[in-house]
Amino acid sequence: MESRQERGSRILSGTLQCCSCSQFYPVETGIPRLVQAEENVQETGRRFNFQWVSRWQGDFEQPNRCHGFDHQEYVSWMMARLAEYGPLKPDDWVLDAGCGSGEKTSVMARLCPRQQVIGLDLGIGALERAAAQFGEIDNLHYVQGNILQPPFKWDTFRWGISIGMLHHTPNTRRAFAQFRKLLVADAALLIWLYQPFWDAPEWRPLYFARDVLFLGQSPKLPPRLLQTSALLLAAAFYPLGQFAWWRHGRRLRKQLPFFDRKLTARQRFDAQVFHLFDTLLPRYQFRHKRREIEAWFAEEGLEMAFHAHGYYLATTPERLSRQSPSTLHPRALPARLG
User: Domain 35-42+71-195+286-332 - what CATH class?
Assistant: First the structure.
């Protein structure tokens, strides 16, 4: 490691050399640039980078919410569930794979001050915004990289979190296998994946827009045009969208307490625009049945501990047999973990 600029313990610029292949990678604005990816994967990264940079610029929802979820409640719920099946130890490492804007990763780091938290993503623009905003958090690190060719050693992370990213790769199963290899043997992991059309009534209007209204061709359109299209569609179907949010919110909140049905009309509308844009944007959007995910877990030596509306939490069968699961509301989580 060659350092050219530092701030405290954080290296702002320098060069990293891979121990196995001797290749050099730059570190700029505090972010290691460790991307190795085919053009189709890089193109996906560029499209999502537009989304998350636009969010940082205020084009979508309020800063404390994403997809309608309050960051603090959402992350607290995730970490409470993970803590049930895989408690953290001091100096453990936590991976947020596909961290997007990096905001929820910063909440994770604040809740785990004795652990190191890594946010991994392809989009450098959004990571730079996040690093500038949250750079004072010593145990928070952003890395530009590709989950299909991850820039970390195997068996590194105690917790693995990947919300809405694995299904946007060319091969969800391969991406999950790489993700699993990064985790220690008795890790706990939480992922969210798209469900098939008939298994996810709350997603059917969005799938209909992508598959029927846009004939599956929306990934070929410029992101700015899709952003405008999402705004116009959400406005045109505003009453239907508001009703669907209220109707499905009652069902979702039974198992996902962070799903807030008490948003203002403007907050719901902004969330619907973001959901729609997020659905139309990516080239790859695979939708997997629960039995597929369970089979993947079994093949990787894991067992499902929790499943609800596309969220899957898993750990090893040995650790699962020692736990007595409880239902935790996010507010039951201590201010800090570990």
Answer: alpha beta
